[in-house]
């Protein structure tokens, strides 16, 4: 079977794991000419607490609004979306900045040589909601629940989840392993448990993101706290407000 030449890569700018995986998939592209189709997925929506507004019901909503900007950019250039995701992701996950704030988003667009007015244009255009929502629902309908999620030859795969994205030949070897996985549709899961040392390494890698975020981390309804010793479940995300009064 020949190797795939395209991949649909679903991301949320807010997700630190998806950001690391996006660095790897770009390295694969550089080595083998892979065509990356950037697609959206909302952690705000999938982790929404009952009774809270959907992200499309808010005038501005962190990751959702950044993806609406991306949707506007993609209408004329997938490359512009690629550059927007890379720069906004790097600002949050490496520089510790806040691209989820409108003024910072405008600054980053200007830095890329793009029109800062696209922030307001994207937010004023309700059809950008539709684009982000449709691609989010695509993952949900396929049984997905988070990012990074890729579609390869129509198969929906979550991952690979990593914090030290390989480059060069190593990136291609990992891509070959992922591509091989697609050949076996009834192989559902292969997972390495995280040791305390792994959790400490993840927390260290995520430090800029953790210091810049204006939200809590939620995993399947549970609030997760990150410390130098690793991470732990604090309690139900729905009880966050009660715990912090």
The total count of helices amounts to: 11
Unreliable segments of 5+ consecutive residues: none
Spatial order of the strands in the main sheet? 2-1-3-4
- Class based on secondary structure composition and strand pairing: alpha+beta
What would you say the CATH architecture of the largest domain is? 3-Layer(aba) Sandwich
What is the global morphology?
globular
Number of domains: 2
Distance between the termini: 58 Å
Portion in helices: 40-55%
What CATH first level of the largest domain would be assigned? Alpha Beta
In terms of DSSP E residues, the strand content is 5-15%
Tell me the total number of β-strands.
7
Remind me, CATH topology of the largest domain? Glutaredoxin
Average per-residue pLDDT, rounded, comes to 96
Rg over CA atoms, rounded to whole Å, is 18 Å
- Tell me about the largest β-sheet: 4 strands, mixed
CATH superfamily of the largest domain: Glutaredoxin
């Amino acid at each position: 079977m020949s190797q795939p030449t395209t991949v649909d890569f679903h991301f949320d700018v807010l997700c630190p794991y998806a950001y690391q995986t996006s660095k790897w998939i770009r390295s694969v592209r550089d080595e083998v000419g892979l065509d990356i189709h950037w697609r959206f997925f909302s952690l705000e929506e999938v982790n929404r607490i009952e009774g809270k507004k959907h992200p499309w019901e808010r005038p501005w909503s962190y990751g959702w609004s950044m993806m609406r900007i991306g949707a506007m950019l993609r209408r004329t250039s997938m490359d512009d979306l690629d550059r927007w995701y890379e720069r906004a992701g790097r600002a949050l996950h490496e520089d510790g900045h806040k691209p989820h704030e409108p003024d910072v988003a405008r600054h980053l667009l200007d830095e890329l040589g793009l029109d800062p007015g696209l922030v307001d244009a994207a937010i004023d255009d309700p059809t950008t909601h539709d684009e982000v929502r449709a691609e989010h629902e695509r993952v949900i309908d396929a049984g997905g629940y988070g990012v990074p999620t890729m579609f390869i030859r129509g198969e929906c795969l979550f991952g690979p989840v990593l914090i030290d994205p390989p480059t060069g030949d190593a990136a291609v070897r990992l891509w070959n392993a992922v591509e091989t996985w697609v050949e076996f549709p009834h192989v559902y899961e292969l997972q390495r448990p995280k040791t305390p040392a792994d959790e400490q390494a993840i927390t260290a890698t995520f430090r800029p993101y953790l210091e810049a975020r204006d939200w809590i981390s939620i995993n399947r309804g549970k609030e997760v706290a990150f410390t130098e010793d690793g991470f732990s479940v604090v309690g139900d995300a729905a009880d966050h407000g009660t715990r912090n009064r």
